[in-house]
Amino acid sequence: MTGILAEVHLPFAALELALRPLMKQIGRLPPRQQAALESAFGLRDDATPPDLFLVGLATLSLLAESAARKPILLVADDVQWLDQETYEVLAFVARRVRSDPIVLMAAIRDGFDRIFGGAEIERLRLSRLGNDDAERVLAENAPDLLPERRGRILEQAAGNPLALVELPRGAAGSDAGEAPWLPLTERLERAFSARLSELPETTRLLLMIAAENDGTALREVLRAGEIILGAAAGLELLTPAVAARLIEIDGTELRFRHPLVRSALHQAADPAMRHRVHSTLAAIIEDHLDRRLWHRAAAAIGPDEALAVEHDRMAARALRRGAAAMAIEVLEVAARLSGTAKGRSGRLLRAAELAAELVRPKLLERLLRQADVDEADELAAAHIGWCREICRQPMVDDPARISVLGELAEKARHAGARDLASNLLWRAAQRCWWSNAGEEIRADVASMAARLGLSDDNPRLIAILAYAQPLRNGAGVHAKLRALSESGASDSDAARILGSTANVIGAFDLGVTFLKASSAALRDHGRLSDLARVLLNQAWAEMEVGHWNAAMRDAEESVRFAEETEAPLWAAGATIVKAQVAGMQGALEQAYAYAAEAERILVAIGARFPLAMLQIARGKAALSAGRHGEAYEQLRRLFAPSDPAFNVGFQFFGLAEFVEAAVLSGNPDAAHRVVGEIERLSAPMPVPWVETEVLYGKALLAGPEEAEPLFQRGLGPAAQWPFLRGRVLLAYGGWLRRQRRSAHARAPLREARDIFDALGASPWSDRAREELRASGEASRRRTEYAWEALTPQELHIAQLASEGLSNKEIGGRLYLSHRTVGYHLHRIFSKTGITSRSGLRPLLAEGAQPLG
Length: 852
What we know:
Elements: H1 13-19, H2 31-40, H3 52-67, E1 72-76, H4 84-94, E2 102-106, H5 131-141, H6 147-157, H7 161-166, H8 184-197, H9 201-212, H10 218-229, H11 239-243, E3 247-250, E4 253-256, H12 259-268, H13 271-284, H14 289-299, H15 305-320, H16 324-337, H17 341-357, H18 361-371, H19 378-391, H20 400-414, H21 418-434, H22 439-450, H23 459-468, H24 474-487, H25 492-505, H26 508-525, H27 528-544, H28 548-564, H29 568-584, H30 588-605, H31 610-624, H32 628-635, H33 655-664, H34 668-681, H35 688-701, H36 704-715, H37 722-738, H38 742-759, H39 762-774, H40 792-802, H41 807-814, H42 818-832, H43 840-844
Helix pairs in contact: 2-3, 3-4, 8-12, 9-10, 9-12, 10-13, 13-14, 14-15, 15-16, 16-17, 17-18, 17-19, 18-19, 19-20, 19-21, 20-21, 20-22, 21-22, 21-23, 22-23, 23-24, 23-25, 25-26, 25-27, 26-27, 27-28, 27-29, 28-29, 28-40, 29-30, 29-31, 30-31, 31-32, 31-33, 32-33, 33-34, 33-35, 34-35, 35-36, 36-37, ...
């Protein structure tokens, strides 16, 4: 495939050209992938647009299927001019073909900011030829040049092979007066222009038509030439251009030998001729409505509302094909053609909304500047505010934005745009959670939500109440979430909102249910940018409910998808989850390395809110190591108003760790204050997670007479959170032993040991065993299992394979090549000593720890 500037407005055009020889095999793809590729190529018109990543997976599957029979070299030239959709699909493929007999070779010019993949992609920057090689190339292509001209061309070409070949063929190569400071591209354009001037006039006209055309069909060029010339136009008219090595004719297609030839022709044509060429092409193109409309627009002089409406429809077609970037460009053209100022502004605002969804803030602001919106239009102001908000970096501590968003939400509500108002208020509530907004602001957001008139079970209303006041509204939100979990969320987006909301109040058991439903749907539809965020939340919930292997698996996948979709915030959050799990399991060096990596990302993007979660990870690691003073110093930052990690909405997630560290390091007074404040904010009825943490904290701080009932009450709601329950049991058993009640201490200590063993929390297992020995009971060592040698991704693949999924099905689930899956299975067999897939199920059945 070759990127062509004139075709950049045709979504998936270059990809379709490259895959055309393989399309007869499309029926072998899974149905959803087949539908995505057909929709992208305009072969079907589904109501739901395909996600680009699903198109990318279909492309990868099609290539891998063919490469299994014969190796494939996929060449992409002039990548800087590929349509955006093809470029993104190729970038997706480039990151995944390392295990397949597929080579992707892509060429891109200097000066363009498109970068394929990450650091793993091999890059070769082509340098200029040395003097000896340049002289040899010039001698082979222009052996008869006089020495003076040869020296001048060598100087002007500056080692560029194309210049060495092309400059001698035109007058520019012998023009002693040519300015030596001209850019090389302009020198080459002059060289091509000089050769064009030597061609017959009819030939130049046909070349001009070809240059303005956005297709390669030879018949279109000849037919348009006949109309403009008023006479027959045959292939012989193009023979001089072929002889001059400006074009190539391959069967029914005409191609320029170099893009600069097209550029030179475009520059040489006067506006009247370009207008006539586009009008003629619009009249003769019959099999492609969108191409015809592009040429009509290029030929339009002044407004044309009917044509603008046609472009509105074209934008809608682009969106159905999953080409949002193209839809923006089409709407810009429609705005230029609009017959009224209102129509122009409306189209630019629609384009701005799409730019916001793609998170392209510079494009958004350019479109808004052109829109010229009436400042008195409250609804338009609310729309613009929403667009700007979703383009901003999330999780930034900016309390001032909360009031602004609230005002915009009120404007939207007054204008009758309830969905927009609820979105704005939801973001305002999220900013309450991300920042240290005061209680008054939080209460205002909650009261505004009540005025929206949404039903009690509306996911956004529930989310607003939770994010604005997670402790104050926790009990009511928890009841609504529990009811909805029993009836099921209406769709994946509702499940995503409800799952993250459950995490916000500490209802992690409900969060897992909602988030698994959402991630499954997002995975099926290829919405990897949303999936990265959902997997982060899912990993967090799974960590708290004791599914640590699943948490690590989902966190790693979240990092992979976040990096791919350029969402560093989610990558940082998922890395913090990995740090927490590693710290609790006693892999301290790994935990601190993860924490350092997450902090590096957060500092680079200026996000403060996740620093609270990061400090909890560091505190847990220090507690696991028995370094209580260090843990206290790490965790006290959550409660110090002057510290960047201070966050009132996140403090209760680290309450148990903070109290434990404070008590064991001799700082009980600080813990008393924190427990009292969280108990006050969550009154009269905290959610079970918060209740457990508060009771555990009060038990650690209580005197001998009050401690035991607090421990026992804390064990009631703690059953759903194994690690927290294990620590309550460990502390309770240790307290009983110190009260000289060793016989009573053994039962909670045994249960704590078994919980920590199942979780793989080795430092805590060791502590429970020490307490058991001190109480007079010996304890066996923890059994090691073969599957523990696997990485989270290998464990995930092993689980899917044990369920009977083929390599191709696993690849589709994980957005990997099936050969990559096979590579990982080979490593799994090697690490665990099994020899076939049949051995996976008994291998994974070892131990009591939930793996999925």
